[in-house]
Please model this.
Amino acid sequence: MLQEIYINNFVLIDEARIAFNEGLNVLTGETGAGKSIVVDALGLVLGDRMKNEYIRDERHKLLTEAVFDLKFNPEARNLLLENGLAEDDGDAETLVITREIQSGGKSISRINGRIINASLLRSLSPFLIDMHLQNARHNILKPSNYLDYVDSFAGDIKEERSGIARLYQEISTIRDSIDRIRSQQHQRAERLDFLEYQIKELEALGLNAGEEEELQEKRERVRDAALYSDSCRKLYNLIYSGDGCAYGQLYDAINLASRLERDPFFHSLLEPLNGIYFSLEELGGKLARFKQSLDFEPGTLDRIEERLFELSRIRKKYGRTVEDLIEYHREAVKERNELVNSEEREVEYEKQLANSLQEYDSYAKLLGTKRAQAAGQLKKMVHQELSGMNMPHLRFEVELKSSSMPGPGGYESVEFLFSANPGEELHPLHKIASGGELSRFILALKKVLAEAYLVPTMVFDEIDSGMGGSALQTMALKLAELAQGRQLIVITHAPQIASYANTHYLIDKQVKNNRTSTIISCLEKNERAKELARMLGGEDYSELAMQTSWEMIDKAARVIYD
Model:
């Protein structure tokens, strides 16, 4: 349940705090006073898109905050716990959602003080409030939503729906694979010949990763072999040959230190000197081996150049590096094998498709049976609600249409058919219902669905639009009935509806220092009567209007509390 909303720097509102109660909360006021601003602020805090005109003063940030009691809302509590936004079930009983908009347009959303992303906020919102707005009144009557309405009366169908969704995806994937194989059939032989040619050409090269870099290094060494060999000889002589060579002098140094090793200092020199000695021996071996590796056979340089040219030529055809060539070869072999085995794979896919279709069919038929029963129940309940709204001659049908082709939600689609007057044929509801008929049907459907969805708070923005007389009185009574056991927030111009309010807010405008502001106040009983009189007779209402307003309030109280 929505306990409170705080609004700051929003359109015409400087600052407002509204505490909502259980039952029917009504917001009334003159046209243009800002009643819908409250609903817009609530939508914003629940994740609606920001509009530039929302910020009242560009020098300051916009802030909206809503407090919810989740004590009897396990779905919302579980979502908080799953996303780490509450430590335990007790912590998840109170929810505070904050939406902050900077003047530059940057938006920050918080749940219980922790920053969250917009997608999580939108996932949570349906568990908190069901909003019916003037500019979105036809959304509920989109045929694409009808199947969900029927399913809400079909009992526990999670297994069937999840199974159907999974299998539909499997079936679509398998069919795509079969279509791809069949589309390749007419060019299969040509493609196989081409792949075989490429594979043989690449395999004939005997490619090795890193080969090109090694060949380039070896080419440079062959070109400068004479220089390298002479340098190796000179280095070897400096280290090992002749008087004063490093090896000989080091040998003498070790002998001298050995004779004096009784002294700790000279003893400490022996280990590093011996280390240098062994390093020189190892270095000599390296020089000898490297010099020997420079003894290339005649024609080595030509063979290296030929190999590098061949690699360069093939790279221009298939890839930028030798590694690319190796990867290209691997993919070509894979594609060849798939084409060679395509007939066998098509047979295997056909078997998989038949199995998936059979499993899908079992789920879909079971779900279809439950949907047929649910459609009858939905029809009966909506009809009962509409019958009590001055529509005695209406006919309403929930038509289940079956298809032989699997769909993402089963074989069925749903159409709502409607006829309000005797002798008229049934037609799709969204095409023929008038404004008043739509309002009554939407309320009836919302009232019926509320029992299935168990949304704790429902918001109606001028659902009474286009209605009057006894039909409006009936709608007022239906809203009062719907408010029993749940919270309703209703924006209305109708005194009939306002008379049933458990809590009544007046939205008014005032001008101060040449600046217009929206003021929100909670009305006591006497103030309520004055507001109803204004709604009945205008600003200059008569004593009769005042008397009528008291009668309406008393009558509504008797209906509510009887």
Summary: The two ends are 24 Å apart (CA to CA). The longest strand covers residues 503-512. The CA atoms of residues 199 and 329 lie 6 Å apart.
